[in-house]
Amino acid sequence: DQYTMRFYWGMLILILVLMSGCTTADDSSTLPSPAVTDSVVVENLIAQSEKEFDANPNPTVVYDQFLNDAETIALKNDFNSALVKIYTIAGKRFRNKSDYINALAYHKKALDIAVNTNNKKQLADCYNMVGVVYRRIDENSLALDMHLKAMNYAEELGDTFNISVSLNGIG
After folding, report:
1. Which terminal residue of the chain, N or C, has fewer Cβ atoms less than 10 Å from its own Cβ?
2. Which phi and psi angles does 20 have, rounded to 5°?
3. Buried b (16+ CB within 10 A) or exposed e, 38-53
4. How far apart are CA 123 and CA 81, in angstroms?
5. Taking each helix axis from N to C terminus, what angle separates 34-55 and 80-96, rounded to the nearest 10 degrees?
6. What does the DSSP 8-state code read for residue 31?
7. Do 127 and 149 meet the contact criterion of CB atoms below 8 Å apart?
8. How many whole angstroms separate alpha carbon 113 and alpha carbon 52?
9. CA 134, CA 148: separation in Å to the nearest integer?
10. How far is residue 95 from each of residues 60, 63, 126, 153, measured CA to CA in Å?
11. What was the pLDDT predicted at 11?
12. Minimal CA–CA distance to 75: which of 31, 52, 103, 109?
């Protein structure tokens, strides 16, 4: 379709721009490392997925090919921050379709990575996301625990958005 075609043309242009500084193998210019290029590709795939999802308010596929491709590249390169983002997006989409089992699974995958990397911003985000799902399925004591954990990280960071989400979840 037209969005996919535009995406791939954009990727081709990006690759050509990145390569434009290199004229020969003997040139002192170098291409960006594959990890840098892969990082850009992952971010573009995530952006394309969000664009496609926003354009279709009732998609039949929640975890689309763009997210799948982004996940594959991110896993290959240990792009933990991108994986948290991918799994959070998927969790939100499933939650918004009231598919709480899948929502919880994806939010917990994101949370596990955030815990392992000790990224406090992501911890605040992820604990709140898990808490929201627990609230939706009436697991209020688990929701409270998640929102309190999120609040601790959010307060430490001065993250007013996550403080607000935590307080809303706590009630």
Report:
1. N
2. -65, -25
3. bbebbebbbebbeebb
4. 11
5. 10
6. P
7. yes
8. 26
9. 13
10. 14, 12, 14, 23
11. 64
12. 109
Tens of pLDDT, residues 102-154:
999 999 999 999 999 999 999 999 999 999 999 999 999 999 999 999 999 99
How far apart (Å, rounded) are the C-alpha atoms in residues 87 and 24?
A: 41
| Among candidate residues 102, 99, 98, 7, the one with its CA nearest the CA of residue 51 | 7
* Contact present, 92 and 111 (Cβ < 8 Å): no
Can you give the pTM of this predicted structure? 0.78
Over residues 12-40, the pLDDT tens digits come to 666 655 555 554 444 445 545 665 688 88
Burial (Cβ within 10 Å: 0-12, 13-18, ≥19) of residue 81: middle
Distances from the Cα of 25 to the Cα of 36, 119, 120, 163, angstroms: 20, 40, 43, 53
Q: Which two tokens stand for residue 76?
A: 């290959």
Locus of tokens 């690759």: 15
Q: Exposure of 100 by Cβ count < 10 A (0-12 exposed, 13-18 middle, 19+ buried)?
A: middle
